[in-house]
Recover the amino acids of this structure.
């Protein structure tokens, strides 16, 4: 009887523990992030669209932060900057990286298609989200230099929805961007839920997203992105040290401090859930959102 | 989590504590501490590359109402609080950590030897730590127990968790302390 009971208890315990797939299967090595940064300041627009003074700085600082985090031999990052910056934006960026609907779609579709199982696509957008009937659609560059084009939510998500082996994280710092955050299924219905796409939006579907001057020298940021940068451990160094060529920002000020942000209390792991919680606890009025459910994605994994 | 689920939990807590105050039993109170391995089993909607996501966790159950029905049979009702860690990282992905609290009903059969078998049903409210999203969960457990001393039991629970969107399984090691009140 005694042996039988011990066997009854011991065997299932052993079997269950051995089921830990993460321990039994080889974990993917050499993680790689593809990071696409789309930002527009609308300086060149003739049709009265509000200029955004912080979007380019937002995108370039987030890009610099990830490049610094990934600066180690075991991890790799490929960054793509799609900027519409200054009065003559097409002069500062290659033709295929100018942020038109066609170029964004082409780049995202290609990366999604080629994404491997140990690869992550990170997409960051800073710019206007439209109001009116097409709430939250992205205002990107038009074919003519002084026009904008409306990149609809459906078309943007379609560009990310092709078959892929990797994960996609989208961060939107724009008005009404919560309309992009998909609902997690309440049951087992699969309608429109794309588990490989995780999002963080700066605002709810009904809220606007704001910019603010953070330092005395006109150092604007989107409030959401300022907190995102702080979560990543970015030290702004009071915005001192930025370099411009004409009206183009060529060198950002700041660097990662590894004992700050969420790096200090997560063992170095930066996750979508961790960033969302960090920002949500500090941002009033905009109501940032993320996808519910059990799945979370690490944006940075510490290598030892 | 909907209002019905919250109401159900409140009723369970009320019943447990009111029964505990009036229980005509010899065993009056039990406290169990456990640590466990937890496996989340993804559903097809998650399109997860792994069949199971592995977590670890700790929890405690307090049984304020323990009713000894006969020499071999006992019924207990309890409240539980637990924390499950995030799953092990696989590539860039992992499953979120969560907290759970809720009510339980446990049946125990005591053998003549220092062994016992337990069956327990729980209703837990869970909350993901980062997103603060609530979800309800049912848990069914079987446990083998070995009496170490008069008051201390070593218990090995195996559990299945049922949620709307996925299943979970767990195996645990628990220490249970039972305070015996011999007043009748």
């Amino acid at each position: 009887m005694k042996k039988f009971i011990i066997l009854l208890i011991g065997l299932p315990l052993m079997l269950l523990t051995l089921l830990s797939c993460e321990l039994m299967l080889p974990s993917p090595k050499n993680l790689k992030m593809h990071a696409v940064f789309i930002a527009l300041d609308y300086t060149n627009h003739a049709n009265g669209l509000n200029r955004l003074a912080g979007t380019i700085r937002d995108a370039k600082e987030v890009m610099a932060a990830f490049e610094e985090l990934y600066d180690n031999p075991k991890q790799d990052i490929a960054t793509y900057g799609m900027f519409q910056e200054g009065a003559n934006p097409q002069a500062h960026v290659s033709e295929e990286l100018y942020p038109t609907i066609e170029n964004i779609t082409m780049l995202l579709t290609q990366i999604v298609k080629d994404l491997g199982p140990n690869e992550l696509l990170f997409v960051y957008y800073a710019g206007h989200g439209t109001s009116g009937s097409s709430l939250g659609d992205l205002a990107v560059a038009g074919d003519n230099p002084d026009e904008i084009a409306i990149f609809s939510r459906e078309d943007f998500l379609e560009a990310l929805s092709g078959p892929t082996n990797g994960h996609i994280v989208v961060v939107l710092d724009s008005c009404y961007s919560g309309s992009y955050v998909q609902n997690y299924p309440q049951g087992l219905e699969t309608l429109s839920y794309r588990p490989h796409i995780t999002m963080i939006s700066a605002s709810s579907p009904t809220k606007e997203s704001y910019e603010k001057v953070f330092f005395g020298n006109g150092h604007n940021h989107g409030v959401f992105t300022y907190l995102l940068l702080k979560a990543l451990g970015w030290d702004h160094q009071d915005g001192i040290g930025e370099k411009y060529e004409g009206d183009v920002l060529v060198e950002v000020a700041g660097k990662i401090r590894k004992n700050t942000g969420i790096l200090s209390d997560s063992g170095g792991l930066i996750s979508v859930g961790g960033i969302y919680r960090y920002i949500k606890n500090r941002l009033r009025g905009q109501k940032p959102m993320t996808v519910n459910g059990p799945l979370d994605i690490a944006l940075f994994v510490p290598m030892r | 989590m909907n209002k019905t689920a919250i109401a159900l939990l409140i009723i369970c807590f009320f019943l447990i504590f009111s029964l505990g105050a009036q229980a005509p039993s010899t065993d009056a109170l039990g406290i169990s501490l456990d640590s466990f391995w937890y496996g989340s089993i993804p559903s097809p909607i998650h399109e997860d590359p792994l069949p199971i996501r592995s977590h670890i966790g700790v929890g405690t159950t307090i049984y304020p109402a323990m009713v000894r029905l006969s020499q071999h049979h006992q019924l207990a009702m309890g409240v539980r609080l637990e924390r499950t860690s995030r799953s092990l990282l696989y590539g860039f992905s992992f499953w979120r950590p969560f907290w759970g609290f809720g009510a339980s009903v446990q049946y125990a059969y005591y053998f003549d030897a220092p062994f016992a078998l337990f069956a327990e049903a729980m209703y837990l409210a869970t909350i993901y730590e980062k997103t603060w999203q609530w979800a309800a969960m049912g848990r069914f457990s079987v446990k083998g127990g070995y009496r170490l001393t008069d008051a201390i039991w070593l218990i090995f629970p195996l559990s299945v968790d049922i949620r709307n969107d996925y299943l979970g399984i767990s195996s645990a090691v628990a220490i249970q302390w039972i305070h015996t009140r011999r007043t009748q």
